[in-house]
Design goal:
The complex is a heterodimer.
Chain A: E1 5-7, E2 10-13, E3 19-24, E4 31-38, E5 42-50, E6 53-57, E7 64-68, E8 74-78, E9 87-94, E10 104-105, E11 109-113
Parallel strand pairs in A: 2-11
Antiparallel strand pairs in A: 1-3, 3-8, 4-5, 4-9, 5-6, 7-8, 9-10, 9-11
Chain B: E1 4-7, E2 10-14, E3 19-25, E4 33-38, E5 45-50, E6 56-59, E7 62-67, E8 72-77, E9 86-92, E10 100-101, E11 105-110
Parallel strand pairs in B: 2-11
Antiparallel strand pairs in B: 1-3, 3-8, 4-5, 4-9, 6-7, 7-8, 9-10, 9-11
The chains are: A mainly beta, B mainly beta.
């Protein structure tokens, strides 16, 4: 168990809908990262937050957005969903110390868009 | 976009054998090279990692070999066991920034 929690575990929704994925980082970790894993794309970095501020953006679509709250949990919002958004979504967190390198991944949310 | 190229895509090894997975990177600024292990239905879990100031790091049956001049690193699993069957991802990163992942290797250990 990495200490990172994600809810829900599974999500089935229809095209055009909007969903919110939630992530709670390990205790003390300030950085949260979101990744998308699909069969044909591997693990793709979406976005990083550090202590509530956006730090880096990857291949995140404009229909997707995220935020990190004062209690450090993070939410990833996916809107106008398309079939191609079906994937596993992982969040990971990093230790407070910026010189530390490890990222710890949560169990993921499996999103199915029908 | 900085890439990390991983090979092979899939690998079958007999129990007790050595599993070898290779990765090559482009960005010479990368200073952290982890390997992640992922079982079906689970998130990736950090297995072992190396920094470029050493050429090899060993933890139990798992060894990372690092060749800075060739910009390559590899994972060796000695005495491979059926429980090692999983997907393995190499990754690279600069500082505390995002990880750039390889495309993954599905390892199957057969009796």
């Amino acid at each position: 168990d990495s200490g990172v929690t994600q809810t829900p575990k599974h999500l089935i929704t229809a095209t055009g809908q909007r969903v919110t994925l939630r992530c709670s980082p390990r205790s003390g970790d300030l950085s949260v990262y979101w990744y998308q894993q699909s069969l044909d794309q591997g693990l793709q970095f979406l976005i990083q937050y550090y202590n509530g501020e956006e730090r880096a953006k990857g291949n995140i679509l404009e229909r997707f957005s995220a935020q990190q709250f004062p209690d450090l949990h993070s939410e990833l919002n996916l809107s106008s969903l398309e079939l191609g958004d079906s994937a596993l979504y992982f969040c990971a967190s990093s230790p407070r110390d910026r010189s530390s390198y490890e990222q710890y991944f949560g169990p993921g949310t499996r999103l199915t868009v029908t | 976009q900085q890439q990390v190229k991983q090979s092979p895509q899939s690998l079958i090894v007999q129990k007790g054998g050595i599993s070898i997975i290779n990765c090559a990177y482009e960005n010479t600024a990368f200073d952290y090279f982890p390997w992640y292990q992922q079982f079906p239905g689970k998130g990736p879990a950090l297995l072992i990692a190396i920094r470029p100031d050493v050429s090899e790091k060993k933890e139990g049956r798992f060894t990372i070999s690092f060749n800075k001049s060739a910009k390559q690193f590899s994972l060796h699993i000695m005495d491979s066991q059926p429980g090692d069957s999983a997907t393995y991802f190499c990754a690279s990163r600069f500082g505390n920034e995002k990880l750039t992942f390889g495309t993954g290797t599905r390892l199957t250990i057969i009796p």
